[in-house]
Structures are given as structure tokens and as C-alpha cells.
Amino acid sequence: MTRLLLVEDHRLVAQALEMGLRAEGFDVRCTEGLPAALPALLEEYPPDVVLPDLYLADRRSGIDLLPVLKGPDRKVILVTGESDPSILARAFGAGVDAVIEKAVPFPELVAEITAVARGRSPFADARRQQILRDARRAEAERQRRLAPFAALTPREEAVLSLLADGVPAGDIATRSYVSLSTVRAQIRSILTKLGVRSQLQAVAMAVKAGWAPTSSRRHHSG
């Protein structure tokens, strides 16, 4: 009998899944939220397959738990309503064996769990490849949108960041201990490099591209 562990913090969802999967012949356990004793639970009840939700309580993620959940003979199937291929690709990179949408019909869920547990799931393999392709395309598009910002100097990045925060040019000059004419010259340079005609367009372009100053990206990555 295949042993399943559900990591799901929505009690009604967990109970419904647990009852349904037991009725299909699985041996099922379900965590109560995110127990601190999860490693001990895995030791006491070593499952063949773990089904974590992607988004859990306290801003935790099923991806965060993978170092604990994964095992040499244990499969992990991420159950989620998330459709962003970049996030799902990160899950595969972290070691998830398959991704199943929460909205999938229950018989398909059962069939997929069975196939993944046996180590053979053409559907899971095809979905993985599609997600990775979509993620590569999304990243290429993101890089294309960000490319014009690479021409900005660090000072121009700082000015654009302040403009995006709604800080007027005069206040930028005061904060930076430079003249207003200097800030205006920097703004003109930003507009030229981005190929736009107004500060509003520059800010809108930055927001749409998901741009952040280089210093912020370094801080975030660290």
C-alpha cells in the first residue's frame, strides 16, 4: 500500500483529500499545519510520496520544506494553484518530482500519484518540460524588458528609483546635495536612454519591467 503524507494547512482541504485518498486504497497521514516535529513525523511514518501545498502558513512554502521532505526513496508532488512558470521551475530545481494543479479532477490526481509513486509518469514529465520551457521564455522576455536599464549609471538608477517612489526632482536635489539643474540633466539622460518622453513613462516602464536598482538587487540576492 502506498503511504502518503499531506502537508496542508487548510484543514477542510486536508480532511477532504485524506478521506478521498484513503477511499482509493492509500495509507494517508496529514500534518496539522507545519509541525516543528516534521522530521520526527517522517521518521515515525516514512511515506512513499509527500504532497505539500506550495503556499503554507507563516509565509512558508512547500519549496522551503524540500530539504526535509525529500528522501532517496521518497517522491514529492507539489500540489498548487500557482501557474507562474518561474516559480514552478524553481520548485523543480529544488527537487520536486511533479506538480499537480489543485483544480485537477480527483481521478486524475489519484492516477498521477500512483504513476509518480511507481517512478513512471509521462504526464508529469511532459508537464515538467512545458513548465521549464515556459520559464525560459518568461526569463528571456524579462531580460529583454530590463535591457534598456543596463545603460543607466548608478546615479541615474538612484534618481529613477526616487522618481518611482514619487519623490519630486527638487526633493531629489535637496537629498543629494546637488542643484536642481543637475537632477534635471540626469532625468533627461534617463529618458533618452530608456527611449521615453516623460518621467511618468520612465516610471511606468520600470514598473512593467520589474526593474530595481543594482544596489537593491545585490541586497536582495544576499
Can you tell me the number of structural domains? 2
Average pLDDT figure: 88
Q: State the order of secondary-structure elements, H for helix, E for strand.
A: EHEHEHEHEHHHHHHH
What is the CATH class of the largest domain? Answer: Alpha Beta
Helix content range of the residues, please? 55-70%
Tally of helical segments: 11
Which strand order spans the largest sheet, edge to edge or round the barrel? 2-1-3-4-5
**Termini, distance in Å?**
44 Å
Low-confidence blocks of residues: 217-222
Given the helix and strand composition, which structural class is it?
Answer: alpha/beta
Q: What is the oligomer described by this structure?
A: single chain
Secondary-structure arrangement, i.e. CATH architecture of the largest domain: 3-Layer(aba) Sandwich
> Could you tell me the strand content as a percent range?
5-15%
Structure description:
The protein has 222 residues and is α/β, with parallel strands linked by helices. It has 2 domains: 139 residues, Rossmann fold (3-Layer(aba) Sandwich); 70 residues, Arc Repressor Mutant, subunit A, CATH 1.10.10. It is 56% helix and 10% strand. The protein has a 5-stranded parallel β-sheet with strand order 2-1-3-4-5, sandwiched between helices. Helix 1 links the parallel strand 1 and strand 2. Helix 4 crosses helix 6 and helix 8 crosses helix 9. The chain starts with a strand and ends with a helix.
